[in-house]
Amino acid sequence: MEAQSALYQKIQTTYDFTDFEMQKMNFTISVIKYEFSKFIILGIVFALVGLFREYVVLMLTLIPIRTFSGGIHFNHFSSCFLFTAIFIALPVLLSSIVVLPHTIQVIILAASVSITYLTGPVTSPKRLPLQYGRYRTYRLISTGIALIWFFVFAFARVFPYRNLCFWVISLQTIQLICAKLARKGDIYEKD
User: Fold this and answer.
1) What is the distance between the terminal CA atoms of the chain, rounded to a whole angstrom?
2) Which residues does 107 contact at the CB level (< 8 Å), separation at least 6?
3) Fewest beta carbons less than 10 Å away: which of 112, 150, 161, 182?
4) Comparing C-alpha atoms, which of 126, 123, 176 is closest to residue 146?
5) How far apart are CA 186 and CA 174, in angstroms?
6) 8 A C-beta contact, residue 103 and residue 154
């Protein structure tokens, strides 16, 4: 820990970073470390139970929209990991037991596009607030990703892992609603 502190101090003095810039760098490094470790651990678990392909599809579906729309955040790695594990397992479980008709899936995804636009992004309270311009950009990107999925579902009736992708997007939308309700007030800086 002392070596890390010395490294941060050396970086700050060498590159003349402000305390604010160092906080941003520290936050970014922490996020990468925690997210990467969750990604690896869950990947190993899914590989051990024979569901690694589903895990890869699930992550390729979730990461782009989650990156820009946000969602529920926790204060501790253990609670975050537990929630993530349950959240990742749910679409796999639901996709194997609940297949909704095509029309219902398209209607739900249309609602997801609207909800993503109206609620996102919901960032972590630990994260420095987004400037409004970036907040608006993230909102448009996440809505655009949801819109692309809507068109994929509307025009491609059959594709591999279709039901899994549907449940990932639907559950992410539900998570976004819950995160927005839990997070009161503005989550961005006024320009």
Assistant:
1) 37
2) none
3) 182
4) 176
5) 20
6) no
Name 8's Cβ contacts closer than 8 Å, sequence gap at least 6.
22, 25, 26
- The pTM of the full predicted model, rounded to 2 decimals, is 0.82
For residue 3, give both structure tokens: 């070596």
Token pair, residue 27, equals 């936050």
> In a 10 Å sphere around its CB, with 0-12 CB exposed, 13-18 middle and 19+ buried, how is residue 8 labelled?
middle
Beta bridge pairs of residue 122:
70
Three-state secondary structure call for residue 188 = strand
Please, are residues 80 and 39 in contact by the beta-carbon 8 Å criterion? no
Between the alpha carbon of residue 66 and those of residues 100, 117, 175, the distances in Å are: 23, 13, 10
Please report how the helices 19-48 and 2-15 are oriented relative to each other, as an axis angle in degrees rounded to 10: 130
